[in-house]
Amino acid sequence: MKITREQVLAWRLRRQFVDPRGEASAGEIVGRLCGVQAQVASAAELAVGLRQRTPEADAVTRALADGTLVKTWAMRGTLHLLPAEVAGAYLSLIAAARIWVKPAWKRAFGASPEEIDALGEAVSALLDGAVLTRDELVRRLAEDRRFAAMEEHLRSSWGMLFKPLAWQGIICHGPKQGGKATFARPASLSPRWRDLPDPEEAAPIVISAYLGAYGPATPETFDGWLASHSHRKTTVRRWFADMGDRLTEVDVEGATGYVLTEHADELARCEPSASVRLLGSFDQYVLGPGTKDTWVVPAEHRAKVSRTAGWISPIVVVGGRVAGTWELDKDTLAVSLFPDAERPPMDALEAEAAHVAQASGLSEVKVRVA
């Protein structure tokens, strides 16, 4: 089956609630996107709000409070929102890479696989029925001489020693207390939480979800998104192969990738989009396929989108391709188009800016195109 890049991008826009927007809840949007990056809480709220026809104020906060979502270290070691019911499947696949058993991990963070196992048991016991701030948790751990030497790494906001525990479903982020991060057991925070399934059971769940938002895609693209290429290539390819006729291979202008068979006809019928959309920082539209996907982010402009220290800029999306970036300064939304990008209609940018204002809780914003 042959399709065009323009069809792929239009289909992704539709599947990801970018164009058209809909009435989906925060939980539904996060589920469709296979998680939403959440180290910047306001960016996560904006990612959800910009996909709703009428943005719901504090939709993410409320979904976390009622247990629909959990916040934990997940894909590529970054903090994500995930639907509580299926979070275990994602974490199971990430944990299957077991990067904390590799010698490089111990050299960098000073903890052996056995010490990580012991840390997991201790943290699980400390968080049994409790929600603790980082300081409270680390202070109690440091009282145990087995973990005293880890204190500096445990106090780090990067959480490198806690990440293997998160991937095993032992720990997740809890509600903030006075602006301080807290930690809890996910099973205690959400009645919807399910224990981690075996990776072989988890693989078709996660692959199906990923291809349902970011297909067509290859096993290599999937693993790059999931775990920064930490799994053996043969393992990921087998996961795809084991899905059999549930997947269909397609040709996109000479490049091959997989889609869910149930989506193949819909994709083939998809018409190219000319829509103009503004999406926020760290948006899944670019993080899902990766910023190196030149169909989405032109290679010559990648540095404007994927910046230093892992920052992902807010983006202007025209017809499914990133055509520039934007930033909000008080009541002015400044658009910086790429030099070779065609200028979108001003009324389309102003309509998008109004939606950004609504999703951000602002009365109105003015648009300035650099």
TrEMBL record:
Checking Pfam families in the record gives: AlkZ-like (PF06224)
Q: Which PANTHER family match?
A: LMO0824 PROTEIN, WINGED HELIX DNA-BINDING DOMAIN-CONTAINING PROTEIN
In which domain of life is the source organism classified? Answer: Bacteria
Give the source lineage, highest ranks first. Answer: Bacteria, Bacillati, Actinomycetota, Actinomycetes, Streptosporangiales
Please state what the protein is called. Answer: Winged helix DNA-binding domain-containing protein
